[in-house]
Amino acid sequence: MDTGYLIETIIKVVVILLVFSALAGIGTYFERKVLAFMQRRLGPMNVGPYGLLQFGADAIKLFTKEDIIPTNVVAGVFKIAPVITAATAFMAAAAIPFLPQFTIFGYTVHPIVADINIGILYILGVMAIGLFGPLLGGMASANKFSLLSAARAAAVFISYEVVSGLAVLAPIMMVGSLSLIDFNNYQADGIGSWIVWSQPVAFILFWIAAFAETGRTPFHLIANDHEIIDGFGTEYSGMRWGLFFIGEYANMFFISFVIPIIFLGGFGDGSVLGAFALLGKMSFFFFFFLWTRAAWPDVRPDQLMWLCWKVLMPIAVINIVITGFVTMF
């Protein structure tokens, strides 16, 4: 194996882990500020100017808080469940091109860990494995409410993985590839070549499914932190509890990259302007996750399942059939 390639890959992996772990904490600060602004509150203000060091204070609290393992839990499974949630989120990042390639000191850097030809399938598959985090965490807890939350989490994840998979199938038929780099290149001719114009239904379906897969409002039924208990995370404390939320916020960032790359032109022709455009699109989708939390109430579990199986999935199948006929003729 080429030594330069190996070193570059290790550096990219370390950078992704460090940057997006930090962004997960910073994302909580922005969420508090956005919610506070929309609800006419101040939000974090006491720790640092404008509360800018609040995420640092949260990190110190999580790292120093006692890690309690309740008496009657299945200890091994209970301990590994949060790691699964965080690990699968970062594993999904391996096939995402975060920026166009660039040259520094004569060396060309490709800001993607692995441009595999099944990139989209890999991302959806790894994110689907993430359901085992809350599922195992809730099942291993000695708490019936955690168990109910785990079952609810599994139902939501599995159901909406079907919708996201069917939604993205139509664009795949158009591009003829599963690589996100190929998706970007397919739309490199400008805004008129964006897939969203020919696949608006797939775009909306994939966007809706993203809320369910990341456990965000209005589909925040996996761990309702506005209830008295915290769902599958009720028995957790300290950094194990924090790993669940690092996984959630990391998933929000990663899916906020995937949506514009598939549907909204990605980074275009690879110019500096295209790179900033991709970061702007990602920022909008991340902000939209926060916006909906302030503006939308949660739906009931039965409504969520009804929406998935009786509305979204039939629409996705019809969209695939129409795309197939259009592609053929």
Outline of the structure:
By secondary structure, the chain is mainly alpha-helical.
Unreliable residue stretches: none
Number of strands: 2
Strand order of the largest sheet: 1-2
Percent strand = under 5%
Shape, principal axes of CA atoms: globular
**Series of H and E elements:** HHHEEHHHHHHHHH
Q: What's the overall average pLDDT, rounded?
A: 89
Helix/strand/pairing category: mainly alpha
Distance between the termini: 45 Å
Number of domains: 1
Main beta sheet? 2 strands, antiparallel
Indicate the percent of residues in helices: 55-70%
What count of helical segments does DSSP give? Answer: 12
Q: What is the CA-atom radius of gyration, in angstroms?
A: 20 Å
Catalytic activity: a quinone + NADH + 5 H(+)(in) = a quinol + NAD(+) + 4 H(+)(out)
Keywords: Cell membrane, Membrane, NAD, Oxidoreductase, Quinone, Translocase, Transmembrane, Transmembrane helix, Ubiquinone
Membrane topology: Multi-pass membrane protein
Transmembrane segments: 6-30, 73-99, 119-142, 154-174, 194-212, 249-267, 273-292, 304-326
Write structural notes for this entry.
There is one protein chain. The chain has 329 residues and is an all-alpha fold. It has one domain (70-328). 67% of the residues lie in helices and 2% in strands. The protein has helices at 3-38, 54-64, 75-92, 119-129, 132-140, 144-175, 180-186, 195-198, 200-213, 238-263, 272-295, 301-328; strands spanning 102-104, 107-109. It has a two-stranded antiparallel ribbon. α1 (3-38) crosses α2 (54-64), α2 (54-64) packs across α10 (238-263) and α3 (75-92) packs antiparallel against α4. The protein is globular, with a radius of gyration of 20 Å. It starts with a helix and ends with a helix. The model has no long low-confidence stretch (mean pLDDT 89).
